[in-house]
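A further point concerns the way the authors explain their paired sequence and structure data. Since the whole study asks how a given chain folds, the encoding of that fold should be made plain. A single example would do more here than another paragraph of explanation. An entry of this sort, consisting of the sequence and the corresponding backbone structure tokens, reads as follows:

_____
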Amino acid sequence: MKMNLSEKEKLIAGQSSNLEDVEKGTGIKTNKNQKLCRHNQKRISGRRKPNRAVFKNGYFNLERWKKSKYRVFPDIVQAFIDAQWRWTIIHCILTYLIIWLSFTGVWWAILELHGDFEPEHLPHAINSTEWTPCVKEIYGFTSLFLFSIEIHTTIGYGTRSITLECPSAMVTMCIESIIGTITQSFIVGIVFAKLTRPKSRAQTLLFSKKAIINQRDGNLCLIFRFGNTRKSRIIDGSVHAYLLRHSSELLENQIKLDLTLDSSENISFLFPVFAVHKIDKSSPLYSMSASDLLKAEMEIIVVFEGTIESTGQPVQVKSSYTSQEILWGHRFINMVEYRDDKRGFVIDYSKFDETNSVNTPLCSAQRLFNYYENKIKYQNAIAC
């Protein structure tokens, strides 16, 4: 349904055309250059765009803080897993370098105190003396650094080796070996967790960028679309929606919306699926018209949960729709077609977010229901 600005003001003021004409989409003259959709309409007022609790990529727009003098140490492992790959790799490299350099300093102190760096005690002069060093074939800092790497990684080339001369060197070797094993296990665990976490799989599950409202079987319905871009299946899937009204007490204004699926309750994900919320008497949108939606400060959070068939891991995807992202009087374009050359169905995900406008009553579902009820009563009265 399309209208110009003056006609929209009339609608907001309650001076709309006859409801029956509105239902048929003929009560208001259209203008091809303007749309009812809020994202295509230039705003006259300078009202700030409403904040959102959940971004389109699923991240929460929340900041947790605790007013306390005692600071809680963060979960280091979880921080590494949640960090981007480049930062995880950089931190792993820095961890190795710090350990190697730290133990190189410890080895340097042990050998310096033992006197192994005296000119007459270096490896090329040992053959002429009876001096026994703590570690064989050590010439300076570079060779000590390589020796520290060999102990940490258990390489052991055979040229540099510890002797029985220094008990402190033996203790240091044991400590570095233990720390090396723990560090490698820690890093391998982080890399494995990052590779197998369902977050990467969640990026292939899409919600439509816009939600729509149109008429189905005489009822206004809120609809959004979601799909799976991979061939691997998601089993035991379910989808939920929650309405948030933006206010100073946001957490006290959460309402769960009843959803039905176009295909079945058990999502097979063979094709993109429509989630439909029927705007009836139990819906918080029951008394909201198109003009009310334009002025509403609300957000609809959608959540999909399922299990990855190949790994058995749970996956969750979140998104949200603000009032600006709900298109009244639109319908999603069909994106599935049968291709003879492919000998099968083809899903064109380039059309995943595309919609076209359809004639839809601009009044609220409550007013539409009252109209149908009065119409039936009037017809029954005439029949009698």
